[in-house]
Amino acid sequence: MTSKAEKGDITPPPALEAGGADELEIKTQPAATYADVPCDRNEEDFMTRNGLSLKSFQKRSYGQSIVELDRTMKKRHLQMISIGGSIGAGFFVGSGGALAKGGPATLLIDFAIIGIMMFNVVYALGELAVMYPVSGGFYTYSTRFIDPSWGFAMGWNYVFQWMVVLPLELTVCGLVVGYWDQHTSVAVWITVFLVAIVIINIFGTLGYAEEEFWASVLKLCAVVIFMIICLVLVVGGGPKDGRYATYQGAGTWYNPGAFRNGFRGFCGVFVTAAFSFSGTELVGLAAAEARNPVKSLPGAVKQVFWRITLFYILGLFFVGLLVRSDDPRLMGSGYVDVHASPFVLVGLYAGLRGFDHFMNVIILISVLSIGVSAVYGGSRCLTALAQQGYAPKIFTYVDRSGRPLPSVAVLLISGVLAYINLSADGEIVFNWLLSLSGLAALFTWGSICLAHIRFRKAWAHHGHTLDEIPFKAAFGVYGSWVGLVLCVLVLAASFFQGVAPAGKEGLNSAKGWFQDMLALPVVMAFWVVGYFWKRTGWLRTSEMDVDTGRREHDWDTINAYRERLAQMPAWKRIFHMCNHHHTAHDPHPSALAAAVRLTGRQPLGRRKHGLGEHHPRRAQRQRRRARKRDQPLAPPERRALLPVISSSHHPWERPLAHAERQARDQQRRAVEVDHGRGAVGEDVRVELLGEAEGHEGRTDEAGEVVGLLWRR
């Protein structure tokens, strides 16, 4: 059906008259107070912006009920967080105990299964995060698409998970230093590294992002160096005074064998593998504080595959080739016995002087990095819980440098639990607390998959199509079903391992079973509390809201890009999709060029943002468009149907609720109907995306619309 805008039958509304009622109404509005003025990070001085002055601790005011965190993360930060953000004690240290428990084949199989599960989890999270970039916690997807009481449980489960991980990582830091200095008390080093984490958190989100970036670079470089050295050692290229001076091959897979402890060992390695992948979901949490999550998150999500394949699978494969599963140093080792790290043992057995110290330094950096991530992830989720009314209101406090101070303080205080492990009785308490983090991540990952499945169902129920989703999970709903089923199977395997642990004859004691499965009753307890508090249950499909807070996209531009992509050869299309992450706010240049060819000028919204004068390709496109402006324009009936690239919604803007977005559309967002370049002073008709409202203006010498007057 042809609209009035396409026919050109809309009568321009009259302009505002000076001294009229509308102007009087504007003049008589109350003056804005300090609380009504947004606190722009760029307007703060350097010391305040980076949390280095007393002024930075003052409460931030955005003039709205929910105070946002800073969006200072760059694309490179998200890329490295997704690749190396969760490589820590579970991978470098815990893999030794897992090797002794299940053998090299079980180690590979279990980590591969968890890797497949995480691949689907992260893609499901990426699709949801691009659609609904929430600041603080992805537990809100459970609240929105599953059950508010279950979302309450997932939020607090995630906070408590990181509150336990932090003291664990601090303890490992102290033991790593004990590899060189066995005379100094571990408590001294726990204090030193706790202070280091406090200093990093003074710089807020940017401090975490930079620390994670450089720590991930070091971790990835170390793993690559380790794999290259292992390849040389496997073929017998090690020093003559070492164990690997002759060809090794797959000898450890035959003697002592590829599997240990049978099915019990197979189930027992799952807990270690799940703990090793904990923190992978942080990329979705960090995306809400990125400058442009719609552009940077899809690229970061796609890097998870390479981390799983290259670093976890290949790294552990070489470990299984060089370290025997019956090595006495691996027996009884867990997450905190650094001397039992297979990465350190390879250097010792090979006779490579200094290599064990090098790996210890990398382990120390990795563990400290996970500790910083624990404070970041737990504090942001706690702040989001408070903003939704699921936690005390004091945790909504955000200072002028963008730090949620009360939430960060609570997480840092939880690090004091590391001192409990220093006493004999305290070790028992610490082990009970540690059991909370082993399975807690499984509930989070399963909830993400279930929320994605429910979102797709609600999306179709409300009349939407898959083409309206800018970034789709690699395997769609089927991948989320695979991830959810694997979460359930891993949980069942952990239950069996709690009943019949590997390396023990007979059944486990009641104490051992409860210690292994402590996360399950804790999550159920949170769920019950949330149910009786909020009085909500399982959401029906018709009750799910898929519009509130949804990010707006320019679909005409996206479709033009997809059409161009579909015309490429299959190999080029796959390469292009893996290395270029164009989204709604970063369309391919050819999509804009198509609009320029039809109109003879660049759309107003894109021109307002600017393409950048310093980029040679962009400058070339600008000159080409300038030449096209002198060419005859397309017929009006074609111009009316052109896609509009609106500048009203910036990629860094807070996702608006449905009512807010509708009100903003009626008050502020305008779309030019006539894209033609009029003569100087010629009237240009503009339609407002509301009922039947509009405004008018005139064009200057450059063809820009000027003097726009809003009509109420």
TrEMBL record:
Question: Which ranges form a coiled coil?
Answer: none
What does the record say about its membrane topology? Answer: Multi-pass membrane protein
InterPro entries to which the protein is assigned, alphabetical: AA-permease/SLC12A_dom, Amino_acid_permease_CS, APC_YAT
Question: According to its UniProt record, where is this protein mainly located?
Answer: membrane
Taxonomically, the superkingdom here is: Eukaryota
Per the database record, which ranges form the Amino acid permease/ SLC12A domain?
77-537
Keywords assigned: Amino-acid transport, Membrane, Transmembrane, Transmembrane helix, Transport
UniProt biased composition (Basic residues): 604-628
Q: What is this protein called?
A: Amino acid permease/ SLC12A domain-containing protein
Gene source species: Thyridium curvatum
Q: Where in the cell is it found?
A: Membrane
Residue ranges spanning the membrane: these are: 80-99, 111-134, 155-180, 186-209, 216-236, 304-323, 335-352, 358-383, 404-422, 428-453, 473-493, 513-533
**Its Gene Ontology molecular function terms?**
amino acid transmembrane transporter activity
Q: Mind telling me which GO cellular component terms the entry cites?
A: membrane
Feature: compositional bias, Basic and acidic residues: 650-677
By its UniProt entry, which PROSITE patterns does this protein fall under?
AMINO_ACID_PERMEASE_1
Q: Where is this region: Disordered?
A: 1-21, 604-677
